[in-house]
Design goal:
The complex is a heterodimer of chains A (about 260) and B (about 290).
Chain A (H helix, E strand, L loop, with lengths): L12 E10 L2 E11 L4 E5 L6 H8 L7 E6 L2 E2 L2 E4 L2 E4 L2 H8 L2 E4 L11 H12 L4 H14 L15 H13 L5 E5 L7 H16 L3 E5 L3 H7 L2 E6 L2 E7 H6 L4 H10 L1
Parallel strand pairs in A: 3-10, 3-11, 8-9, 9-10
Antiparallel strand pairs in A: 1-2, 1-4, 4-5, 6-7, 11-12
Helix pairs in contact in A: 3-4, 3-5, 4-5, 5-6
Chain B lengths: L12 H22 L8 H6 L2 H32 L4 H16 L2 H9 L7 E4 L2 E4 H4 L2 H27 L2 H10 L3 H31 L11 H12 L2 H34 L2 H18 L1
Helix pairs in contact in B: 3-4, 3-7, 3-9, 3-10, 4-7, 5-7, 7-9, 8-9, 9-11, 10-11
Classes of the chains: A alpha/beta (about 260), B mainly alpha (about 290).
Chain lengths: ~260, ~290
């Protein structure tokens, strides 16, 4: 946060040689990736290709085994001192994560809180916003996700699509500079996918920087600036969305896209 | 058109037979006890509201409330220690639960009461206190009840904390909640719904368990009854007086528990919805792969 001067020079996300192993299984085998401010990047790839694991490394929900990720030039999860990476304490991690919004496959709304509390608690508790500010902002966000008037509903009273839209509003309430989406429509009934994608499209058009793990090819093709295709822990192919999806160069990308159609 | 016929329900002759035998047995035992010339029935109402007995009830309730409060707090701490990634902290909590669940409460009560045998006095710098002055029968009894109950409470709470989906923790952490904010605001409130019913059961059980402290004459209800019958030899009569009061206390506690659970139940009515959501998620998962 002290690096305001370098903001304009640094990319939003810069990942270098990110590796991650679970026991003997190496799921990320050296990922290099750059995302610029305002860019929408979709991560595609078959199940088990490591896309979600990579996404979860960006806000240090997953501890990587090697490599480094920086957001706006600030190393995520570690301090670099004398050529070593020292893991941050939980307080420092929490303060980094405030600026990175995350949307989960299973929504993960707080089940014991109504919609309004779900959205306003973090800004009040963590950012120290007043109740009035937080509530006013929550109402604006509910309008954005087209759920006005549902402040008092509990998560279980909402459909999956509505829950996911509240989850997006909850993440946006912290005014993040980067949004991570982890298969946001994979747990939804098919008829509810559209309403969530519509909100994400709106966000993209407002210039939010987004990294989206998804299986929605049509969405990726239309909304993403860039698509990254991953398989077995490596980036196989990347480029402008339409180019990669319409005319893939790599054999593995072609095979995957054929299966998706 | 079918003619309407009278329906004869099946007769359960076996059940009838058992019912008759049970009634006869209870009646026989009842008359045997009530007609016994060795029980002075008239003395029971006299002692039911005796001042000493009422004092004993007060202490029994005090033991129950205090030991439950202490054990809930200690149990919560132990449960969090159990979930810690540090092996020493985790190991300590494991050892605690193992030790206190593995030794009889009666032994623990007698142990605390006799602690001055190997720690005669406590010396901190210039401060010198005789252990006996601190560990009175009351303190020994309370320590034993609380420390023992804390072990059971730790397991109940650990179960409650584990029942909260890990996605809730992840969502909070991703928003920037610190671990303690996550525990206090997100996980613990949701664990409560699972934790409260067994705490009610433990409380009811504790009302009766406190009678064990009579071995160190901690002046609870049973101790008082024993003190009285030591003088007048109305042993059965005073045990009946004590039993009546234990029944009154556990009945009141059960009603309270029912009311609390019904209140909680209003929210848990949604359990089938939760289940349906889970199933839908599972189906979506399956179709994705």
């Amino acid at each position: 946060m002290q690096h305001t001067s370098t903001h304009s020079e640094n990319p939003m996300v810069e990942a270098i040689g990110v590796r991650k192993s679970f026991g003997l299984l190496e799921v990320l085998k050296g990922i290099n990736l750059t995302i610029h401010r305002g860019e929408v990047v979709c991560l595609l790839g078959p199940s088990g290709s490591g896309k979600s694991t990579f996404l979860r490394c960006v806000n240090h929900l997953e501890r990587m085994s090697a490599g480094r990720i920086a957001v706006e030039g600030k190393l995520i999860g570690y301090h670099e001192r004398n050529g070593r990476l020292h893991e941050m304490n939980s307080r420092e991690l929490a303060s980094q994560r405030r600026d990175i919004g995350m949307v989960f496959q299973r929504f993960n709304l707080f089940a014991h809180q109504d919609v309004l509390t779900n959205i306003t608690q973090a800004p009040m508790l963590i950012r120290g916003e007043t109740r009035e500010t937080a509530v006013a902002r929550a109402r604006d966000l509910l309008r954005l996700v087209e759920l006005e008037g549902r402040e008092g509903a509990y998560p279980l009273q909402l459909s999956g699509g509505q829950q996911q839209r509240v989850a997006i509003a909850r993440a946006l309430a912290m005014r993040p500079k980067l949004m991570l989406f982890d298969e946001p429509t994979s747990a939804l009934d098919p008829e509810l996918v559209g309403e969530v994608l519509a909100v994400m499209r709106k966000l993209a058009s407002e210039g939010m920087t987004m990294l989206v793990v998804t299986h929605e090819l049509a969405f990726a093709r239309e909304v993403a600036d860039r698509v990254i295709f991953m398989d077995q822990g490596v980036v196989v192919e990347e480029g402008p969305a339409r180019e990669v999806i319409d005319t893939p160069k790599h054999e593995r990308t072609k095979a995957f896209l054929r299966r998706m159609h | 058109m079918a003619q309407e016929m009278k329906i004869v329900p099946a007769r359960h002759w076996g059940q009838w037979l058992v019912a008759v035998i049970l009634t006869a047995a209870v009646g026989f035992l009842g008359t045997m006890v009530l007609s016994s010339p060795n029980v002075a029935w008239s003395s029971i109402p006299l002692y039911l509201f005796d001042g000493t007995i009422l004092e004993g009830i007060k202490l029994t309730i005090l033991f129950t409330v205090l030991s439950m409060v202490i054990s809930v707090i200690a149990g919560a701490v132990l449960a969090m220690m159990r979930l810690s990634s540090n092996p020493v902290i985790n190991g300590f909590a494991c050892l605690y639960v193992w030790f206190f669940r593995g030794t009889p409460l009666l032994v623990q009560i007698i142990f605390w009461f006799n602690i001055q045998l190997f720690i005669p006095s406590i010396d901190i710098g210039p401060l010198h206190v005789e252990t006996n002055a601190i560990i009175t029968a009351f303190v020994a009894a309370l320590l034993a009840l609380s420390l023992d109950e804390a072990a059971y409470m730790a397991e109940i709470m650990r179960g409650g904390l584990l029942a909260v989906d890990d996605g809730q923790r992840e969502a909070a952490v991703a928003l920037g909640y610190t671990p303690s904010q996550t525990m206090l605001r997100i996980i613990f409130p949701q664990a409560l719904r699972v934790i409260i019913p067994p705490i009610g059961n433990q409380t009811i059980s504790m009302l009766k368990t406190t009678s064990l402290v009579s071995v160190v004459a901690a002046q609870d209800l049973l101790t008082r009854a024993q003190n009285i019958y030591a003088k007048n030899f109305l042993i059965i009569e005073l045990l009946i007086v004590a039993s009546i009061w234990y029944l009154v206390m556990t009945t009141v506690a059960s009603i309270l528990q029912y009311l609390i659970e019904r209140r909680l139940g209003r929210a848990t009515n949604e359990a089938p919805v939760i289940w349906r959501t889970v199933q839908r998620l599972l189906r979506a998962e399956g179709s994705k792969g």
